[in-house]
């Protein structure tokens, strides 16, 4: 007996991949930091990594951030230099700490996102790339990465094949 769930067949294609308009919107959100240097790149909880762009902002309580702030959370990631993997999210913490700061001071050259998989590549000067791949086992539960903007909004990629852009106070 073969049972076919017709709801899956009728699913809106937007849920299966980002549209060209989605890609333009995401690129427009990220584009102000292309050409800027990353700073304060560090390893956080688990294998979460953060990077800042733009001017230093004092958030109070001895906490500071960049005007723009990338936070890679529930995703696999790898750091490459000239197509050689330096370190990845599943490596030991000591090794990650050793290499993740390589990004600090480098200029963000390009940004790419795959509309079907949401794999994202941040390409920096000196042939350095951060490649972010969504985790399949968490795809319906958690976002993959966040990008806080100078306007007080946050771009959230994931969960699943979706994104949002809203006031950072709502997240």
Strand content: 35-45%
Mean pLDDT level? 84
Strands of the largest sheet, in order across it? 1-2-3-9-10-11
Shape: globular
Entry summary:
The protein is mainly β and 171 residues long.
Q: What is the fold's blueprint, element by element?
A:
Layout: H1 6-9, H2 20-30, E1 39-43, E2 49-60, E3 63-72, E4 75-81, E5 84-88, H3 93-100, E6 108-113, E7 120-124, E8 128-134, E9 145-148, E10 153-157, E11 163-167
Antiparallel strand pairs: 1-2, 2-3, 3-9, 4-5, 4-8, 6-7, 7-8, 9-10, 10-11
Could you please describe the fold and organization of this structure?
The protein is mainly beta. The radius of gyration is 17 Å and the shape is globular. It has helices spanning 6-9, 20-30, 93-100, and strands at residues 39-43, 49-60, 63-72, 75-81, 84-88, 108-113, 120-124, 128-134, 145-148, 153-157, 163-167. The chain is 13% helix and 42% strand. A hairpin with a 2-residue loop joins strand 4 and strand 5.
Name a few traits of the molecule.
single chain, 171 residues, disordered N terminus, five-stranded antiparallel sheet, mainly beta, globular, six-stranded antiparallel sheet
